[in-house]
Amino acid sequence: MIVWSNPMSKPRYIMALDQGTTSSRAIIFDQRGEMVSVAQRPFNQYFPKPGWVEHDGKEIWASQVAVLTEALAKSRLDAADIQAIGVTNQRETTLVWDRATGEPLYNAIVWQDRRTSRYCDEIRDEWQAKIQDKTGLVLDAYFSATKAKWILDNVEGARARAERGELCFGTVDTWLIWNFTRGKVHVTDPSNASRTMLYNIHTLDWDDELLKLFGVPRAMLPEVKSSSEVYGETSNRYTECKIPIAGIAGDQQAALFGQLCTEKGMLKNTYGTGCFLLMNTGDTPVKSANNLLTTVAWQIGGKTTYALEGGVFVGGAAIQWLRDGARLIRTSADINNLAHTVEDNGGVYFVPALTGLGAPYWDQYARGALLGITRGTTDGHIARATLEGIAFQVYDIVKAMEADAGQATSQLRVDGGASKSDYLMQTQSDLFAFDIVRPRTIETTALGAAYLAGLATGYWPSIEALHEQWQVGQVFKPKLSPERVQHMLHYWHKAVRAARHWIEE
């Protein structure tokens, strides 16, 4: 049983700052890993051109400060009650700012942004193999390197200023910590660094050859520290007393840790804006032969843990499109009731390639496709097809991951907002013919960041102690016949073929 570190003293807490693609959150956890308080604030999405996605870095920062304050107020706690802060963030999203003033040179270019796709095509033949060998990544506009290059190439005077050391580069974790420490700390961790396409996952350092290729001066890069250590403290300007910042992990790696997939072969899927499936591969990076990514999961106590990853660009975002674009539902939760108005998908299949296809296809020119529509098609069929389209994409990644790992999967741990959909989870179990396990706490991304910060400051004594806390919420077991599943998969893959290479530029 977990007890307070010092039962004679006032209980303390850990705060996780979870900066996502559509909102910023702050969650306070107690020593049992239970949520004490949650605050969330959405921020604007900007789409200046087709395929371009941007955020206002200052708005991200302001929203994160606001939810920190709100979470404390809701829980009636003071900053002095928080032992440490862990930070987890949307990955690959890229910011460049003035080292002296802290002013961003340009909006944050979001991981979904496709503006550098053509440049990636131009250098692919020469550089794809070398980039994969060094970074574990495929050459794609998804990652930070080409986004940073674009800012330096397109903002007047930026490149010269970067070479003089006047500018800072960072992913969102780096940006938040820079601001919370008022410019004293410019850091990231290996899980985020490994998503930039500038970091060598074997030497665990920025790679000079890739820095030269993308024209990113080393002087603007953050220092890479472990995922669990004290990096600095918040400024009194934002909290009435200084709070140690002691954990960093990209959102998907944080979720893997929050699910306590700490043993080799364990895997999880997060159903968020996108869907991201990670498998712990231990202390050895596994090179994928099936278009998956090799990434750093975390680094704790000098030990680096690696993972295989497959990413779906549009997961929960497909439900958002159904709400905001197609306007078939008023709230995201409505999709479940709408899906239950019909017995099956009516032969309708939706490929949610709204920003291209991620793993294992990596087709940046694919586009969304809704196929199989007849006069009998209803909004319920489209709702079902949308949820199933998310599950099908995850299925394709798991099969590629099994091939790379050389082993079959028997269980998948799930989290994220869309994992609340019982229909989606049941569909996922039916496709795989094994158990889908949803934990009691599905906010595992934030929990993972909290765990990392708590381990660094002695709030939790060990990873083994954390395993005592993890609790199953619900298990979904397969129900559909294998014949029905194969029928669905046949038409899904037929639909994918129709959606691929739609844009011919």
TrEMBL record:
Reaction catalysed by this enzyme:
glycerol + ATP = sn-glycerol 3-phosphate + ADP + H(+)
Q: Which residues form the Carbohydrate kinase FGGY C-terminal domain?
A: 268-456
How does its activity get regulated?
Answer: Inhibited by fructose 1,6-bisphosphate (FBP).
Provide the E.C. number(s) assigned to this enzyme: 2.7.1.30
- Gene3D superfamilies attached to this UniProt entry: 3.30.420.40
Q: In which pathway does it act?
A: Polyol metabolism; glycerol degradation via glycerol kinase pathway; sn-glycerol 3-phosphate from glycerol: step 1/1
> GO molecular function terms here?
ATP binding; glycerol kinase activity
| Gene Ontology terms: cellular component | cytosol
Q: Any one Gene Ontology biological process term?
A: glycerol catabolic process
Q: Which residues bind ATP?
A: 21-23, 273, 316, 320, 417
Keywords noted in UniProt: ATP-binding, Glycerol metabolism, Kinase, Nucleotide-binding, Transferase
What residues does ADP bind to?
A: 21, 25, 273, 316, 417
Q: Which residues bind glycerol?
A: 91-92, 142, 251-252
Check the record and name the CDD domains matching this protein: FGGY_EcGK_like (cd07786)
So where does sn-glycerol 3-phosphate get bound?
21, 91-92, 142, 251
Keyword flag Repressor: no
InterPro entries the UniProt entry points to:
ATPase_NBD, Carb_kinase_FGGY, Carb_kinase_FGGY_CS, FGGY_C, FGGY_N, Glycerol_kin
- Domain named Carbohydrate kinase FGGY N-terminal: which ranges? 13-258
> What's its top-level EC category?
transferase
Role played: Key enzyme in the regulation of glycerol uptake and metabolism. Catalyzes the phosphorylation of glycerol to yield sn-glycerol 3-phosphate.
- Into which family does the record put it? Belongs to the FGGY kinase family.
Query: Per its record, how is this protein called by name?
Result: Glycerol kinase
UniProt source species: Lautropia mirabilis ATCC 51599
